[in-house]
Structure formats: structure tokens, C-alpha cells
Amino acid sequence: DTCGKVIKCKAAVAWEANAPLCIEEIEVAPPKAHEIRIKISACGICRTDDFAFKGKINDLKFPLIGGHEATGIVESVGEGVTNIKPGDAVIPLFLPQCGECRCCLEPKSNVCYKSDVGKYTGMMMDNTSRFTCKGQMIHHFINTSTFTEYTVVDESCAVKIDEKAPLDKACLLGCGFSTGYGSAVNVAKVEPGSTCAVFGLGGVGLSTVIGCKVAGASKIIGVDINSDKFAKAKEMGATDCINPNDYTKPIHEVLAAMTEDGVNYAFECIGTTETMESALKSSHFGCGVTVLVGVAPSTAKLCIDPMLLLIGRTLKGALFGGWKSKDDIPKLICDMMANKFNLDGLVSHKLPFCEISKGFELLNKGECIRTVLEY
Ligand code: COD
Ligand code: ZN
């Protein structure tokens, strides 16, 4: 029984920015009050982890253990944890839901004051870490840190899911899938018969395509500079795919010609200000809605003609598909198990956890949709 004891296990430690990940033996302290120690089962590799390891996130502190798109089984819980018990299947939440802050009490918001996104303290709520390696303190990453066999999270940062859920797929509901899918069905609220454009056909863009399809869109146009992404996008529900490099005129004009002056809903799933502007311009002038999904570099500024909005377009954005993480992930798990949508096409590669570096190579070569690590 490991309850109350320090656990020694393997973790991928990022000692500093731009250095290879090292599989190390680390010590994981027992959970304190209102904390949960989780044995990780599976974890997806997300672009945000790669940004973090490349030092592209300002204020992020090293050494750290990354990873945030996972499933696991609760090993033990700290004092005062009542709604989660050892043996429960859980998804760690990079977007917590404490249930008490102004955002959590606001039905229209899904962010939480306890979130470490943007603050990057790299610590638990009491400003200490539960990880050590070779005598050094190791930082946590956005309240999750899942590139380790065991992690500790605050009780606001994990949600119990159906124990029968396939954990090797369900991990994608912890970030990429929920982000894209929710942007369509929850943030934009795509309507049956409407027209949609999805800029960027990576894992997040494809999940957006799935959302547009489930919502009943009649036309779903995928936009990507890599035409190799088109076959998969069509499999997931895109009705048309276009490559901006195949046209001399701006892509919003191409989309306007395909959709009677513009789409009802446009989604930016790339993260550049140029494609955000294109997405906005490709939405219909009188009624189009554009959702920003991708995160632009922290110094980027969007510079647009205000008339684009004044005339009737709507521009919005959301993290994590607008879902309230604790309330909505269990419902998404039910929808997945009822085959409302199918995630199989998103998992392009599976690797054992110790081959994590290979997973990042695949990501950087643009060869994968999602790699899922199995522990
Ligand atoms: N025009 C068209 N397509 C382009 C362009 C361009 N100028 N540039 C790149 N693309 C294509 C690429 O070929 C690729 O197919 C796609 O865009 C991007 O896909 P991926 O696989 O690199 O990335 P995803 O889909 O895994 O994620 C992309 C996001 C930008 C959405 C993601 O990195 C992000 O910003 N997520 C943040 C959302 C969030 O909630 N973050 C918090 C925790 S992760
Ligand atoms: Zn992510």
C-alpha cells in the first residue's frame, strides 16, 4: 500500500527550455488536504506541451513536468476529499472548476480563478511542489503534469469519469477534442443547415469539424496549407477542403464565392493573427460568427478594421471549448460512449510512455494528429 508514502516512479523531466526530455526516477509526495494522487494511464501530446518545452510560454518555470491531456486512476486522496476516491477513473483538468469563484458561479463563463494558465506559478495551491528529482524541486504544469507515472493535483483539477470509458481515447477529452468540438457545439452553437469554415486541420481543427457535423452543418469547409490533411478531414465530416496556396486571391474571397458571401461560422484553429483576420473576413458580413480557438504568441496583436464587426459580424473566443470542466467532461464521456461522435480518427499514433520524445518528433514533423502515450 502506497497511501501516505512517497512514491518513486518514472517521469519525463524538462530540466530547461529547449533541452531533450529526460526520463528520470522522481519522488512524488503524498497528496495534502484537498489533493489527489493519480496513477496516469494514458496521455495525449498537445501542441501546448511542445510550446512549453521550447520556452515559448513566458513566465514558465523549469525544471518542470509537462503534459495535461490525460486519464488515470486515483491512487490515494488527501484529507477532506469527498467526491473522489481511490480506484476512480479521472481526467486531470488544466482548467479547474473550483465551484466557488466569480467565474465558476457565472453560468456563461468556464474559466476559474484557480487556473494556472497565464500565471504559470508551477505550484500546487499552497505554493509548493509535490515532485522532487535528484534532490531538486520540480515544477508542476498548468495544475496537471501528466508526463509522469504518478502526479498530484488539487481536487478542483480532476473529474471522475465512467470507469468503463476507454482511457486511451478518453484522454483527448482533457484538452484537444473538447476544445475543438466545444468551439462548434458550445461556443458558436452551430445550427443545422449552416455553413462553416475551419482554419487549420490539426487535432483541434478536426475536432471542430466533428462538432460542426454533429451540429448538422450542411457545408463544412476545411482550410489548410498542407493538403495532406484533407483526406482525414473529409473522413471526419468536411464537405470541401481548400489550400490557400492553390489560389491567387485571398482565401476569404474564395470562401465567399463558395458560400453566398460568407460562412455562418468560422473557426481559427491555427494560432496566427493573419489566419484570425482571414477567418473573420470569411464569415458573412451581416450574421457571421467567428470563434478564435488557437492561441497566438503572447506578443501578437490583432489589428482589424472595426467596420468588419460594426456591420454585424461577431468575434468571440473561448478556452477548452467553453465547457465547464467538472460539469461537462462526464457528459462528453457519455456522449462518446453513446457514439454521438467517434474519436478513433484523431489518435494517429500510440507509443509507450518511455518513447515520449519520439511523440514530440512526430508532432514537429507534422506527421501526426494526436499521439497517445500509454503508461
Ligand atoms: N493557413 C492554413 N493552415 C495552416 C496555416 C496557415 N497559415 N499555418 C498552419 N496551418 C495548419 C497546419 O498545416 C496544421 O495542419 C494546422 O494548421 C495546425 O494543426 P496542429 O496539429 O499544429 O495543431 P493542433 O490542431 O493540435 O492545435 C492547434 C492550436 C493552435 C489550436 C493549439 O495549438 C492551441 O493553440 N491550443 C490552445 C487552445 C487551448 O485551449 N489551450 C490551452 C491548453 S492546450
Ligand atoms: Zn492542450
Automatic annotation (TrEMBL):
Output the InterPro entries linked to this UniProt entry.
ADH-like_C, ADH-like_N, ADH_Zn_CS, GroES-like_sf, NAD(P)-bd_dom_sf
Location(s), subcellular: Cytoplasm
Give the catalytic activity: a primary alcohol + NAD(+) = an aldehyde + NADH + H(+)
Where does the Alcohol dehydrogenase-like N-terminal domain start and stop, copy by copy? 33-162
Name what cofactor the protein needs: Zn(2+)
Cross-referenced CDD domains? alcohol_DH_class_I_II_IV
Chief location category: cytoplasm
Establish whether keyword Oxidoreductase is in the entry. yes
Q: Name one GO molecular function term.
A: zinc ion binding
Q: Which residues form the signal peptide?
A: none
Recorded hits in Pfam families, A to Z, give: ADH_N, ADH_zinc_N
Instruction: Tell me which domain of life the UniProt entry assigns to the organism this sequence originates from.
Output: Eukaryota
Gene Ontology terms: cellular component: cytosol
Question: EC?
Answer: 1.1.1.1
Q: What class of enzyme is it?
A: oxidoreductase
Residue intervals of the Alcohol dehydrogenase-like C-terminal domain: 203-332
Does the record carry Acetylation as a key word? yes
- Alphabetically list the UniProt keywords: Acetylation, Cytoplasm, Metal-binding, NAD, Oxidoreductase, Zinc
Q: Which GO BP terms sit in this record?
A: retinoic acid metabolic process; retinol metabolic process
The family note in this entry says: Belongs to the zinc-containing alcohol dehydrogenase family. Class-V subfamily.
Instruction: Outline what the protein does.
Output: Alcohol dehydrogenase. Catalyzes the NAD-dependent oxidation of primary alcohols to the corresponding aldehydes. Oxidizes secondary alcohols to the corresponding ketones.
- Protein name as it appears in the record: Alcohol dehydrogenase 6
